[in-house]
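Narrative progress, year one. The postdoctoral researcher (J.K.) led the effort to move from monomer predictions toward full complexes, under supervision of the PI. The following entry was the first complex the group processed end to end, covering 719 residues in total.
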Amino acid sequence: MTTICIHVRLAEPFWRAVGQRDLSLELNVPAQVNDLIGLLRTQYPALAREMDEAAPVIFIGDVEAGPDAPLADNNHVHIVWPLAGG
Amino acid sequence: MQFKVSTAIINLTTGQIDYTYTPNELARAFLGGRGLNMAYLRHYLRQAADPRQIDPLGPENPLIVGAGLLTGTITPNAARFNVSARSPESSILGDANCGGFFAAAMRKAGFDRLVILGRAAERSYLLLEDGEITILPAGDIWGKHVNETQDQLKDQHGPGTVSAVIGPSGENLVRMAAIMTGKKNAAGRGGMGAVMGSKNIKAIVARGGQPIEVAQKQTLRSIRIQQQKYLKGSKIVQVLGKVGTPLLYEVSNRLGAIRTRNSQDNHFEDTLNAEEIEKYVDKMLACTSCVVHCRHRNTLGGEGPEYSTIGLLGANLGIAPTDQVISLNNLVNDLGLDASSVGTIIGWAMELYQRGLIDDQLTGTPLNWGDYERVHSLIEDIAYRRGFGDILAESSQAIHSFPPEAIDYLIAVKGLPQSDPHDVRYFKGFALGIAVASRGADHLRNRPTLEVFKLPDEVRASIYGRANHPDPTGYEDKGLIVAWSDDIYAVTDNLGVCKFVTHGFNSPHLLGYEHFCELIAAATGLEFNPDTLRQVGRITLDTERLINADFGLTRADDTLPKRYFDDPMPDRKTQGHHIDREQFQHMLDEYYSERGWDVHGSLPPERQQSIDALIDLLTAADVHSAVISNSGE
């Protein structure tokens, strides 16, 4: 396999820049979180602007992942703006 | 312009109404809103031989309604007021903060603060108009729901009328009854609606026509324009204006920090995400002078829901369908109940039922997670004190009807059910915050929300005044950040400003002490610098501590629900986290030290003396007010 499929879910406010909550993206292997973010930034400039204004936290499944975290085929990645007000 | 705070002291028992001014020295020390309410509350409680003997639902409990210092001016988001009394829910300091349009109307009717004493012989309401207060018979508005009551009062008194009212819950002395204004704005915490009901007061109606005096009109206008531009550039303000607080649900849920099924679980369904709520939103609304516009009008006949309500009437009760949660939100508001307490107390009862600690003999019918119809009817039964609802109407005091071990499953501190749906076992500063909050388990007193942002060390040091540990899941330096949050949120409450534009709440930007100093100077002519303004926060916290000490509270009461100590979080990123008892005590030590309190959590005697000397100015003012009093008839 030379590419993997990553399922991305965008939380508030990111999904509004793309117009949809869920995306599926193909990445060349080996792939890390920062490759995914780079691809999203390229494909969706409005999303890039949002991420510049509201630094996101990335989860692979239930685990928070740093930029160097490796991605595997069919990983579910959740991009969230960390907030905890009320 | 001369700085003055107009206060009406209304004795419902005698019908006497004194129109007076708060002594300037005292007003300058506390400014307004929550802080000045606390000064008045302490003044009246100290007149009792033993404050612990004051019946929260008796005529001896004062009910104080105070607008913030800047409320009703063009200051950004200055809409708020506080209602304070001894809480019938927690039996300690009761204090609820509320937005909407009422407080501005109250000030424009000529009143910054109402002190309501005694009990009316008949069901009544208060009319505030042109600097005069009239006590009128409630007639057929008694018994009506919140929305209908306000509609009728508006019909009766004409356009421009704004009311703060109680629903059936307040009339029936439900210990978690709110005072409501508009469809959703609630002075919700601590059962202030029950105190109002106990005084036979259904509503306070304000018809405002008087301008609010401002020291430097043009300067205040320029500051408003400048600050509005600054705030509107903030990402959080923009997003709150689009979707409101429901945006927080998904974040907490992904983390595994949503109180679910009475905190047995820590994540729930996506049906309560903001974009699902949005399908039921008609439009976004605002309070007086607001630049955020975070309040939804929903298509099911109400306003909201907020994040807290979504979590506590949804995930906490196992109810997933979006429309059902919105319907429950509308129901609690129209009955005049505090959604936070209701959701927490019903969740508690559901777990007791699940564990067999209570059964159908007590509950009447089964009480299972996710049973919308049962919850709907139970909420009505609480409001009208029917059947099992009559027991739950006692809020945390329902423990007296349950087996003793039921207390182990109650998510409350100092008798007040936790306000927000965030499970605090992960972020340790959040846990410390609800443990020490002066009104009981509540996030709006001191939540250090910046903990989630991973801010650079130098930024954190600059905000909190010294270097501090960046790990939000550790125990180090949490006393520092909670004490810092205490102070700035108290100042915000005293000014009548919303926390959604306050530095430190959801953002490391927004309005901080320097901004507030500019606003205060322009609006009132009072000069403060960031240090002296923070002292206003400190004296507020210290006075609250004194009030609670008189109710018998000690260090042992600054604690957490047993579950937060003993049960690790079950799933997701937060899995395994709980609060270590020993480390918790270290956090408490640090917090007391930051506050200048001793290891028992007590103020130094000289600090108490200086605060009480200020509050004693009210004793002299009482004599003065008797001289200038008018009859309220």
